[in-house]
Structures are given as structure tokens and as C-alpha cells.
Amino acid sequence: MAMSDTASNAPEFTVSELSGAVKRTLETAFARVRVRGEVTEAKTYPSGHTYFSLKDEGGKIRAVIWKFAAAKAGLKPENGVEVIATGKISAYGDRSEYQLVVERLDYAGEGALLARIELLKKRLAAEGLFDAARKQAIPMLPAVIGVITSPKGAVLHDIQTTIARRFGRPILLWPVPVQGEGAAEKIAAAIAGMDRLPANGIPRPDVLIVARGGGSLEDLMAFNEEVVLRAVAACRLPLISAVGHETDTTLIDFVSDRRAPTPTAAAEMAVPPRVELLADLGQKAARLLGGLARLTGERRLRLNTAGAKLPDLPSVLGNARVRLDDRAQRLTIALPNLLAARRAALVNTERHIPHPHALIAARAASLSMLGVRHRGALFQFVQARRGAAMALMPRLSPAPLAAHLREQRAHLNGLTARLAGASYESVLARGFALVRDIAGHPVTTAAAVRPKASLVIRFADGEAAVTAGGRDSARQGALPL
To answer: Does the global pTM surpass 0.90?
Structure first.
């Protein structure tokens, strides 16, 4: 009975009433809390809301950053980074669940910042953004220098005074905030904007300097953000990073083409010292003039030496002229002598040559003698052959030749009879006929004859042209004419 009384004294709630009471209690008791933990299960949905969890060694709590609060949250949740989340506890009554509604995120000390930087560094290094092969050379003397930094402070003044002192060049400034909320996005936009400047508008810089003064690790975090690093990697202009003091190192130093320990050093890298350039130019000009003078002297000495070894040209020409005159005189005398010698040799040769008439008469006499001798020899040969033939004549008889002729005539008569027996004309003589079409081809079957076809029939004594009748007549074996 006591147990029944105790149960009846406990207040009774519906599920909705109890869920609402828990929600009000949580929101009242934990209206403003700061929770430290490691981010896990972070995911941003198309709606713009970001859901994640905070965990430590003993527990885990769900958290959310609404879309309207994301811009003011300060950080974007990243898995594995330890943060301090500021917000309030709220309950979701339909599921009896509670979560932390985050209004701001901060890194949980330098350890968390360094861990986040190290994770990003490893990921970008694996992608090749730090490779030396993709780094560009800084031009020796840029026409325009682009500077991305805060317009306030000593950084811009140091860069301007250093460039003016070393080698005055125009400076194109793109002012940006270098720390705080939204600084990374504005720095990335400035780098991309400088890279997209048209060549025919505002003077396009030949080199960029991204700079800021020293500060704590948290102050320099804008230059460790991925959006800035990817903008530097995509920039087509050579870029010098000068962030913080000499001992400060940010990830932009790994992606940039050159890293300067200070903004002043960056300006010194961008332009050479004009005085040193002039001095170097003067020294090189002096060396060039000296070398040219030495080369000219050497060439002149070699020319004089070669000239001394050459013979005396007037003497050479005089000797040549004397030899030419001597050769001309000797040639004048030698030519008539040569003609006289050739004429004498020709006369001597002519004397030894026989007269053509005598030569022809001798050849004619020789031919006559040969003709007489040939005719006598031919007469004797013919007489000898005739005697031999007369001796053989009594021994020859026409009987074998006549027998052979009779035998061949009988063979020929037999072949003639066989040929006559095989000839179609003998068949025609026995009452048969030869049927041909208009082209002259023999027609051997009735089926080959088409109705109204023109045919030629040959008989023993001549031919007749006919026209074939219908199919029925052909099937019966009659060919109507």
C-alpha cells in the first residue's frame, strides 16, 4: 500500500512535456559554455549547416554551426584539430537528443595550431605544391613590383624605402588585412587579382611580394590557410613571401617561389642595387675595352709578322714581267720555225706516197689475174661434178618413186572417204536438215526454240528462213513453219 502511495505522489508527464522540460533546463543551465575537444565527423551540407562532434578521452558531444553563424565562427571545423567551441546547449525534442550550437571556434593553444599546420603541410606536400621543379625564377630587373600587404604599419614603408634606395621601380599595392576573420580569403583574392591583371590596362607586375610583420602563431595563421596556399600555387607571377620575422615560418614560404626572412629582404630580392649594377657594368665595360685593345694589339702584331714574311711585291712583279717578255719573244721566233719544219716533213712524206693512178692500175691488174684464175678453177669444178653425175645416172631407177606415190595416193583416198562420211552435208543428202538461229548457232532441242523466233533451216540444196510457232506445238514434237 505504501508503494502505491509513493507512485501516486510522483508527477506524471507526457513525453512532449518531459522533453520540453529537459530542453528548457539545458538551455537555461548551459546558456553560455566553452567546450574544449577534438573535432571529428565534420561535414558541411548543401544547406550551409556544418555538423560535427567534439570528443576527448572520456566522451563525445554533437555540435552544429548554423549557416548564418558560419561567417562569424572564426574557424572552419577540421577533423583532428583541437578547438575551443563557444556556444549554448540545445535539445532536439523529437529524438530526446542534445547538441552544442556553436557560435565561435578557436584553436586550443599553439599545440592545436601546430598540429593543424602539420596535417595541412603533409597533405599539400603529397600533392606536389612544395616541389622545387614548379618554382619560378625571379626576374633580374622587374618593371613593376606588386605588393600585397596591409596599408598600415611599417611593412609597406620598409619595402618602399628599400626599393627606392636600391633601384627605384613602380610599386602596385593591393591592400589587404593580414590577420583576423576573412583575412585569408582576401589575401587569396588579391593574389588571384594581381595574376589576372590585363597587360593593356593597369601596369601588370613582374613579381609579387606578399608580406606582413611579425606576430604570434595565431596572428600568422592567415598565411597557413589552404585557400592562400592554393592561390600562391596557381599564380603565374613569380612570388616572394615575407611573413613575420626571420625565425617565423609559415606554409606560404614552402609554396612561394622565394622565401624572404623579412619584408626588407624581400624588397632586396625583388630589385638589384643600382649602384652595384652601375659599378659592375663599368667594370665589365672596362674589361671589355681592355680585352678588345689586347685582341687588336695581338691581331696587329700577327699581321705585321705575316707581312714581314711576304716577298717584295714590286720585285716579284718585275721578275714576272721580264719572264713574260722573254716568253713572248721566244714564241714569236718559234712559231715560224715550227711551221717550216712541219711543211718540210709534209713534202718529204708526199714524195714517198705512190701516185693514185699507178696504184689503181696495179690493183686492177691484180684483180684481172685473180679473175682468170677463179674462172679456170670454177670450170674445172663444174666439169668434175658433171662427170660424177653422168656416172650415177645409169644406176638410178623410177620404180621406187612410183611405188611410194601409189601408196600415198591410196592413203589419201581413204582419208577422203572418212572425211565425206563425217561431213554433215552427206547427212543432209539423206533427207535431214540443219536448224540454226538468227546468229548462226545450231539449235539442237525443241525447248531451246522461243515462240516467234527467226530460224534458218539448211537442206542439201540450200537454206530457208522460217518463224517458229507456239509452245504447244514444240511440246508435241512438231515445229510449224
So the answer is: no
